[in-house]
Amino acid sequence: xxxxxxxxxxxxxxxxxxxxxxxxxxxxxxxxxxxxxxxxxxxxxxxxxxxxxxxxxxxxxxxxxxxxxxxxxxxxxxxxxxxxxxxxxxxxxxxxxxxxxxxxxxxxxxxxxxxxxxxxxxxxxxxxxxxxxxxxxxxxxxxxxxxxxxxxxxxxxxxxxxxxxxxxxxxxxxxxxxxxxxxxxxxxxxxxxxxxxxxxxxxxxxxxxxxxxxxxxxxxxxxxxxxxxxxxxxxxxxxxxxxxxxx
Length: 247
Ligand SMILES: [Zn+2]
Known about the structure:
This protein is an alpha/beta fold. It has helices spanning 7-10, 42-52, 104-121, 142-150, 188-199, 212-225, 235-243, and strands at residues 4-5, 28-33, 62-64, 70-72, 90-95, 126-129, 185-186, 209-210. It is elongated.
């Protein structure tokens, strides 16, 4: 996926409230545009949605700019405010700009989000544009993005095969030894695993020491992924840190 700018990185305000849905309930992916200047920032859009519309947060799950930067809005599984009554089932992605402003980089970023959503959902979500959803009569996302979604969201230069999906993720080979404690040991394997878990969003110290705190993260991860829960990082738990969807 392209560059993801986290909420903290773009200075998002905290949501007033948040409702979550599940991947099982997700069935579609909807493209929007902001219909404003491409120089608008996610924060300006969030301010408008929270102060002007009175919504709990920026309405979209993600936003994409002309450079192909992806900004985290409500994220993958929060119910959005972008296309009622489809907010629970559909992920809403907004291109920041007007009709005709969307660049190849922006389209590639939106397509990347769609592929990633399918990977996380473990199924193919329907592609849609705002005005194409039932109960939504709007020109959003403009003629250019509408025809692009209709054409299967082809990425320029990729041959335009809409059915292609991202290659399955792969993990580096498990270097051993199996991480187990006590006693607390320091290994390069542990440091790499801690680093990877931290990249996935876990609160973990990256110091190479496999102690009780690391083992606790390991057990939580194993529980979440349905692995056998033994608090040891062996080949399966190691590989899962790279290949299991981040939830
Ligand atoms: Zn829209």
